[in-house]
Amino acid sequence: MSTSETYTFEYFMPEIHLKTALLTFSTVLFGFIYQVAKGGAGSHLILFLAFSASVLFAFFGFYRIISWTQETVLVVSPQGLTDSRFGQVTIPWTAIERIDLTPPTENNSWQAEQNRFLFRGIIRLLIASGIYGTVTIPGNPTLTEHRDKRRIKLWLRSGTQIEQTTPAARLRIRDNADGTQRVYIATADLNATREELLALIVDFHAQYGNMAQSQPAAT
C-alpha cells in the first residue's frame, strides 16, 4: 500500500449483524428460561443477571448497527491517524513514539478453531445472500479470536496529550506515570485485519514519523 494515499476503514457489518443476532437469541432464551424455571432464588438471580447482560450487549449491538453502518471509523493518512470513536482528533505521526510490535496471543484450542470455522461460515453465507451488495471479506475475521489480537497499542511522545472526551476515549487512551499517554486502537469488527492495519500504521509512521522505526514494547 502507498503511504501517499488516505485509507478509510468501516465496521464489517456482517460480523456485527451476526453478533447482534446471537445476542438477541440469547436474550430471548434466557428470558424464556427465567419465566419457566422452578429453581430457587439463587438460580433465578443467575438467570436474571444473564438475561440483563444479554439485553445490554444486544442493545449496544443494535446501537452500533444504527450508528456506524457505512460510517468511517478509522482514517490512516499522511497527516496522521484519526479514530472517530475518540472524536475528530488526528494523531500526527510525529506524535507517536513507538508502536507495539509484540506478536499477539493466539487462542488455538480445538474449541476456538471450531468456533472460528462455524462463525466464518455463517458470515460467508450472509455475504453470499447478496443483502450487503459487494463485500470484501477480511482475511481473518476477529469474532472469536483472543482479545490481545483485537487492538494495536501506540505510545505517544512527551508533550502530546489527547483529551478523553468520549467513553471510547476514556477506555482506550491511558495516562502513564511519566505524564505520557498510550493509545489502544480497537481493531475488532473492522473491515480489515489487525495484521493489515498494523503493517499500514508501521509503514506510515516510518515514512512520516521522522524518527527511528517503531520497536516492540517491553514486556
List the helices and strands and how they pair.
Elements: E1 7-10, H1 13-36, H2 41-68, E2 72-77, E3 80-83, E4 90-91, E5 96-99, H3 110-128, E6 151-156, H4 167-172, E7 173-175, E8 181-186, H5 194-208
Antiparallel strand pairs: 1-2, 2-3, 3-4, 5-6, 6-8, 7-8
Helix pairs in contact: 1-2
Please write the string of helix (H) and strand (E) elements: EHHEEEEHEHEEH
Poorly predicted regions are 139-148, 212-219
Share in helix: 40-55%
- The total beta strand count reads 8
- Which oligomeric state applies? single chain
Instruction: Output the radius of gyration.
Output: 20 Å
Give the N-to-C terminal Cα separation: 30 Å
Q: How does the helix and strand content classify structurally? A: alpha+beta
Average of per-residue pLDDT values: 78
Note the total helix count. Answer: 5
What's the story with the biggest beta sheet?
A: 4 strands, antiparallel
Instruction: Tell me the β content.
Output: 15-25%
Task: Based on Cα principal axes, name the global outline.
Answer: globular
Adjacency order of strands in the biggest sheet? 1-2-3-4
